[in-house]
Design goal:
It holds the Pfam family DUF2231. The protein is mainly alpha-helical and 162 residues long. It contains four helices and two strands; from the N terminus they run ββαααα. The chain has one domain. Strands 1-2 form a two-stranded antiparallel ribbon. Strand 1 and strand 2 form a beta hairpin. The longest helix is centred in the middle third of the chain and has 35 residues.
Amino acid sequence: MLNNILGIPAHPLIIHVAVVFIPLLCLGAVVYALVPRFRSKIGWAVTALAVISPIAAWFAKASGENLRDRLVAAGFSPEILDKVNQHQSYGDRTWWFTLALGVVTLVLLFMTSGSRRAPQHVPVGVTLAISVVVIALAVATAIYVFLTGDSGAHAVWEGAVP
């Protein structure tokens, strides 16, 4: 599963979904948390991103694990595998931060939705606290997306192009 797509390793293709949607979730969640007047305009998009982004991160992680296993089986050098392991470590953290950001963002969306199912008259302090958590998770997630991508690029391209 998640090994090849049309004869090409799946991981480099799948990561593009995560690379697009996770930063959009970070941005959308922060705007939603900080600018209440935009909530009605972007709520649907942030909801979709909060669901899609963790799924994309999981597929990127799973396909990366499969690619790493193939590199080990092919006998790649310890130097390259060390870089891949560092990249995988960042990718694992990216998955967890993305999942946490998605869940907490969905909680914020629900609390501020005005739905009959949502709690009525939520104290401002609760909404503010959840917003602070969303912003902190968005920053951490964005940092790990960068670290993951940067370490992956170095693992692939370092020494390959003069």
